[in-house]
Amino acid sequence: MSAGSPAAGKPGGFVNWVDSRLPVFSYLQKEYGEYPAPRNFNYWWNFGALAMFILVTMIATGLLLAMQYTANTEMAFDSVQRIMRDVNFGWLLRFLHMNGASFFFLVIYIHMGRGLYYGSYKAPRELLWMLGVVILLLMMATAFMGYVLPWGQLSFWGATVITNLFSAIPLVGDGIVTWLWGGFTVDNPTLNRFFTLHFLLPFLIVGVVVLHVIALHVHGSNNPLGIDPKGPQDTVPFHPYYTMKDSFGLCVFLLVYAGFVFFAPNWFGEPENFVPADPLVTPLEILPEWYFLPFFAILRSVPDILFIDAKLAGVLAMFGSIFVLFLLPWLDTSKVRSCRFRPTYKWFFWILVLDMILLGYVGGNQPDDLSPLGVRFIVLGQIGTLYYFFHFLILLPLLGKIERPRPLPASISEAVLPANRAGGGAPAGATAQRMEKAR
Amino acid sequence: MIRLVGVAVAATVVFSGAALAAEGGKPPKIQDWSFQGLFGEFDNQELQRGYQVYQDVCAACHSLKYIAFRHLEGIGLNEEQIKALAATFQITDGPDEFGDSFERPGLPSDFFPSPFPNDEAARAANGGALPPDMSLIVPAFSPRWVPYEQRHHGADYVYSILTGYDEEPAADVELQAGLNYNPFFRGSQIGMPNPLFDDMVEYVDGTPATVSQMSRDVSAFLTWVSDPHATERKQLGFRVMIFLLFLTGIFYAVKRKVWADQH
């Protein structure tokens, strides 16, 4: 597109007046207008924009809910019912927010899966990836505290169980838990601080998202071929090409999201949380929301190891399962980014996906119950946990050394543009061709 | 996890407050409801009969604390009917200028009065078991022992429990003191005695008041109580979906046109 100095606007116009003093318009033009994006994104590249959309939706609906919510153990449950029954469109706000949390995690998991499959975490994008993991951690903390606010049975007992994890820390553990609670049990001070933090953390997420985008725009986006653009023939300007593609993707996403909000709003929820919190009555089962289940399974899978008791070992394994993602850029020794050219790793990627689904399934069941496979769930959880760490700590470093990648195409345009297809003819070109047609 | 919170008392029963073996119960009798499915809507006649059952029978023990008389507009009562209905209740208000509480006729803005002044009084009158508030009993009443696809069948549960008193316990079942046999309840023993008998209620619309009929009606009413905006939600949902489908089509066309010169 035209290499514009400040965005469209007559010389001397208002836009130019502002832009020469505060270059927001040239910034937008540069980073979201001309920003050269590889021409071969597939639809998996929509999920970053979708995540941004949901983050804004969550903050907007959350702000409106906070105007009606009361963070007090005596009134929290009732105030949520007031929102659902008497506040104008309160039910809509709450269902958008509740289901939005589930969809946020769904979108982020797909976004991360895309990064894993196409090697988006590799040099020079290590910090970009690590900032993403920071966002995931912040999201988890935010979602956990948000789930406590309605003060149902699972809110209360979930908060009790998760905060109790910190008591596994030797020596200072119990002191830390008391400090977190603001007392000797989960009670009003806990609810109050969780509400405060639940309000604060999303804005920290916005801050890290800004860093994430800055880091992204230094070297530009990765792409399904995992090779760097060599020149203008390999890229298209972000606007209108990807703004329009993202808009279409957003509409499809909204159809699914709205389907749940309007027609199955409690599908992701647990019946038990319709019962107000009662510290004297323990629910039959205390389960986190679905997006925490794989990590919950890891937590419950670890037995006593030498002098470390099972509780501490489980906590270390659970936090380790996220921490290992920070090391991923260095654990993966292969120089080739995209799975398209990594015939062996491609299989292991899908096995990892199945492993996460298995762990999620195990996390939703009691460890001592018999699974349909004939073994107790805890055994499945242990296999899944071992495989998870095997994948990152052993498989990835070795695979990079022994795998023989397929030859990479010379450039993106050679691989995907029709004029070059006759000459190119690599299997990669054929794959890309099918993808192009899908547009 | 069980280690962590010491859930040795995991068998504590939420609703009856009595400790029972957590062995589960029979899956519910699945019914056809007018409000199920994407296009389902509440049947106001059914809801009004259900309200009558609640008021004449259930309300003796069970509160409905999130429902005000004005909410009954949602089951098809008009303003006059609601005013007249509310006025038949005596509501405790106050303090007056002397600092005393006083009784006055109810107003549409009043919430349903609770049958007991507090939980302790409710327990004392019911052999130690607390009759739960009914406002959210339908969505909360989906125990875990049933297959996943039946997890959101709260109305069927309420119906099954209300009609589940006619079965005789197996010979080896030992009823605990003060509990009643009901195979659909968790642990098959429930604090509530059989609440419904034929012709207990005289329906305004002349429908024969069998136990099954009253159970159906009150289950439907309690479903509305738990989710009073359900019909409005679905109707808005259809408009939103149609709009989004239209918008998706437009953006698909725009996207194809924009990309046409790049292939």
Describe it for me?
The complex is a heterodimer of chains A (439) and B (263). By secondary structure, chain A is an all-alpha fold. Chain A has two domains: 24-281, Cytochrome Bc1 Complex, Chain C; 287-406, no CATH class. Chain A has 17 helices and two strands. Chain A has helices at residues 14-21, 24-34, 47-66, 76-85, 90-117, 126-148, 153-164, 173-181, 188-219, 238-263, 293-301, 310-331, 343-363, 377-402, 412-416, 418-424, 427-438; strands at 36-38, 235-237. A two-stranded antiparallel ribbon of chain A has the order 1-2. In chain A, helix 11 (293-301) crosses helix 12 (310-331). The radius of gyration of chain A is 24 Å and the shape is globular. Mean pLDDT of chain A is 92; it is low at 1-7 and 422-439. Chain B is mainly alpha-helical and 263 residues long. Chain B has one domain: Cytochrome Bc1 Complex, Chain D, domain 2 (Orthogonal Bundle), CATH 1.10.760. Chain B is 35% helix and 5% strand. Chain B is built from eight helices and four strands; from the N terminus they run αααββαααββαα. A two-stranded antiparallel ribbon of chain B has the order 1-2. Chain B has a two-stranded antiparallel ribbon with strand order 3-4. In chain B, helix 6 (154-162) runs antiparallel to helix 7 (211-226). Chain B is globular and about 80 Å long. The relative contact order of chain B is 0.18. At the A-B interface, helix 4, helix 5, helix 7, helix 10 and helix 11 of A face helix 1 and helix 8 of B.
